[in-house]
Amino acid sequence: MTIPLLPVILCGGSGTRLWPLSRDAFPKQFLRLSTQGSMLQQTLQRLADIDNASPALLVCNESSRFIVAEQVREIGLEHSRLLLEPMRRNTAPAIASAALHAMENGEDPLLLVLPSDHVILDTPAFHRTIALARTAAEAGNLLTFGITPTGPETGYGYIRAEGAANGQVQRVLEFVEKPALALAEQYIANGDYFWNSGMFLFRASRYLEELERFQPAVLAACRAAIIVAKSDLDFIRLDKDAYAASPDIAVDYAVMERTSHASTIALDAGWNDIGSWKAVLDVAEKDADSNSAHGDVLIQDCNDCLVHSTSRLVTAIGMRNTVIVETADAVLVMDADQAQQTKTLVAQLVARERPEATMHREVFRPWGSYDSIGNGERFQVKRITVKPGAKLSLQMHHHRAEHWIVVSGTAQITNGDKEYLLTENQSTYIPLGVVHSLANPGKLPLELIEIQSGSYLGEDDIVRFEDRYGRV
């Protein structure tokens, strides 16, 4: 009898190497870098037709739960569950929580653990490799998928296997940290090394057994967090205090590098972890001069360039091997060979407390989004989009008043003790300290312009009285 397989999709991470498009509040797995949807959506879609597979369990940060839920909804998937981490604790606790949840009803499925931000071009080859690996995982091995190297890459960890025969499960001899170029070249020449993909296949119980052996504190914290977890909407919320007690540790360090039951199987399926803008350029569609352009872009006499425009015209002349990425509030220009250095750049922005390090100008909320299109002393202007049927919390502000002008759609307004509808070109005023709310009762998106004025305009000046999304 075939053991059921549960895909576990890890949706955490900040994706700083794809800054400024990827930021802590909207990391790379949610980006739409191609016409096939976001990387998360592509990860979910390539799970279709895997034999005896259950709907995926997605592990994500509390702060990104509505982005994940919306992207799952957009591609029409049902019955996917979202397990919410109250804070980041790395992959070992995330997988442990998923395993414990999977075993709550007495089941012990195979867990197919996948990051949400990888590209796999050959889905049939991916499925075939999973099928070959299942028998070994069912027997108690902890499988990792080793990527057949295409060159001496220094940005990946490596796996040394006991013989590198493709299509066969092999015992792992050692895991190797990211090497210098000379050492990476030796690994490629040796032929017994794979790139470490960060994808795994093992029984839920086997992972927990090995975790208890090597990192019992992780298992204890996750078990406590699962026992008192709460469910609301489609979310399973891990207990914050219990989960915070877990060590912050990756599954490689916690289990895979220490267990004597680690095995690997070669995966040759056009894999890329999109770990830099150079990687984006490698997998992107290109013109005759090996340039990739996205958005409102005009390129002249350029070769091997990636130019990505989000909000305005971007032009480039005479550039070679260059990455140019524009967003509404930041522009990145760099030599493509320096693509791994964006993480260092973002660290500098964080140290300087620049909001561009973590937040986009457009901020997504469960009800829609807002874009801060202008600001000055004592005022701020936002463009607000509310999804059909959505409603903002019933709230008030201590330090600001608001003017709302409807651009399109219909707005249902609560303003103190009054309730009324506004349509296109109509406006209203919300005085400082008045309890108010905004909803979209229509079937089309509601767009309006909000003008805030007052002594303090921060997002933390909100007192919520009612909120259908469970926010404090």
TrEMBL record:
Catalytic activity: alpha-D-mannose 1-phosphate + GTP + H(+) = GDP-alpha-D-mannose + diphosphate
Domain (Mannose-6-phosphate isomerase type II C-terminal): residue spans on this chain: 353-467
Protein keywords: GTP-binding, Isomerase, Nucleotide-binding, Nucleotidyltransferase, Transferase
An MF annotation (GO) of this entry: mannose-1-phosphate guanylyltransferase (GTP) activity
InterPro entries given in the database record: GMPP_N (IPR049577), Man1P_GuaTrfase/Man6P_Isoase (IPR006375), Man6P_isomerase-2_C (IPR001538), ManC/GMP-like_b-helix (IPR054566), Mannose-6P_isomerase_type2 (IPR051161), NTP_transferase_dom (IPR005835), Nucleotide-diphossugar_trans (IPR029044), RmlC-like_jellyroll (IPR014710)
All residue ranges annotated as the Nucleotidyl transferase domain in the record: 7-289
Pfam families xref list: ManC_GMP_beta-helix, MannoseP_isomer, NTP_transferase
EC class (word): transferase
Domain MannoseP isomerase/GMP-like beta-helix: 301-349
Record EC number: 2.7.7.13
Family the UniProt entry places it in: Belongs to the mannose-6-phosphate isomerase type 2 family.
Protein's name in the database: mannose-1-phosphate guanylyltransferase
